Amino acid sequence: MRRESSIRMTAVHHAQLMEHLFPGDGREAVAIATCGRSQGPERDTLIVQQIEPIPYSVCDRAADFITWPTECIMPLLDRAVQRQLQLVKIHSHPGGFAEFSSQDDRSDRALFPFIANWTGEQISNASAVVLPSGSMFGRAVRSKGDFAPLSCIAVTGDDLSFWYRDSFGAVPEFARRHAQLFGSGTTAKMGRLRIGIVGCSGTGSIVALQLAHLGVAYLVLIDPDRVEEKNLNRIPGATMKDAC
Question: For domain 4-164, which architecture applies?
Answer without folding.
Answer: 3-Layer(aba) Sandwich (3.40)
